[in-house]
Write a structure and sequence with these properties.
LuxR family two component transcriptional regulator; 49% helix; Arc Repressor Mutant, subunit A; alpha/beta; NreC/VraR/RcsB-like_REC; DNA binding; 227 residues
Length: 227
């Protein structure tokens, strides 16, 4: 019987800047558990390459040809519909809160938003790739800071009761409603009641359902310094 290590994570890179593309290529190729299966420089090439290379994770710039606006986010949204098992790490030159929210608008699983400056930190980039491949998500801390600085100095998290803050802390740790109820000894009805109250107090009640948990967690992390 032959045994061996797990197959490497197949990474497809979409980046039109040659210097950034080669830098990321070098990082990926130094990791034993990552395999670069292709590179491309615009959105049409990226979508075509997904079918040709069957990647596990797409690592893409947020702005690429043809419009140099939001190609990375649009790619992530299309892949969510057509290839939900593929993870996507979006890289941005600057903090763009609106794009970050859109990236997570249909769920946070298998999605990451990083600033390009993180490319210089190999651990940050590699961690994001591995995390989305495993079904998790990563949000750059700078995005959290930008979201909270755009609001009033006092955080809406301050309006939560002690119990609601406990519930939100569990959500931030990735607990679903069932796990949350078990950890805090709450009935499913009580969990739903607390969560609805949290969303209302944080001003999230009118947003699409898929935004709620991501935005709530971002506000919680910003208000508690990640505690």
């Amino acid at each position: 019987m032959t045994t061996g290590r797990a197959a490497p994570i197949r990474v497809l890179l979409a980046e039109d800047n040659f210097v950034v593309r080669e830098g990321v290529r070098a990082i990926v190729e130094t990791q034993d558990d990552l395999e670069l299966v292709g590179t491309c420089g615009d959105l049409p090439e990226l979508l075509a390459a997904v079918g040709d290379t069957v990647p596990d994770v797409v690592l893409t710039d947020i702005r690429m040809p043809p419009t140099q606006t939001d190609e990375g986010v649009r790619a992530a949204q299309q892949l969510r519909r057509e290839h939900p098992g593929i993870g996507v790490v979006v890289l941005s030159q600057y903090v763009e809160e609106g794009y970050a929210v859109r990236l997570f608008s249909d769920g946070s699983a298998r999605r990451a938003y990083l600033l390009k400056e993180r490319i210089g930190d190999v651990d940050d980039l590699v961690h994001a790739i591995r995390e989305v491949h495993g079904g998790g998500s990563v949000v750059d801390r700078a995005v959290v800071d930008a979201l909270i600085s755009a609001r009033t100095r006092r955080s809406p998290v301050d309006d939560l009761t002690a119990r609601e803050r406990e519930v939100l802390a569990q959500i931030a740790r990735g607990a679903n409603n069932r796990a949350l109820g078990e950890r805090l000894s709450l009935s499913s009805r009580a969990v739903e009641k607390h969560i609805n109250s949290i969303f209302a107090k944080l001003g999230l009640a009118e947003e699409p359902d898929s935004h709620h948990r991501v935005r709530a967690v971002l506000l919680y992390l910003a208000a508690t310094d990640g505690a």
